[in-house]
Write a structure and sequence with these properties.
Strand content: under 5%
Order of helices and strands: HH
Largest sheet: none
Number of strands: 0
Number of helices: 2
Radius of gyration: 31 Å
Helix content: 40-55%
Structural class: mainly alpha
């Protein structure tokens, strides 16, 4: 989980406990949990919408399937004539 191990989580918890206090820590933890869940739901919605858009075939517009004639090439390095 984010590359954070057990000891790091304990240190973060102790610092949060000292900074916020034992009265407000559960309240803040609940608020953070709700925010994280809402973020995950939003992210899932975006992923689902992108998958739906990717599965739809793009509509062909008028003239889209027609190929244009190849462009004429200018003289290449082999076409250049060198004076003797």
């Amino acid at each position: 989980m984010f590359g954070i191990g057990g000891p790091e989580l304990i240190v973060i918890f102790i610092v949060a406990l000292l900074a916020v206090g034992p009265q407000r820590l559960p309240e803040i933890a609940r608020a953070l949990g709700k925010a994280y869940r809402e973020f995950e739901r939003s992210l899932d919605d975006v992923r689902q919408n992108l998958e739906e858009l990717g599965q739809e075939e793009p509509e062909k517009h008028e003239g889209e399937g027609e190929k244009s004639p190849p462009a004429e090439k200018g003289p290449g390095p082999d076409d250049v004539h060198r004076a003797p």
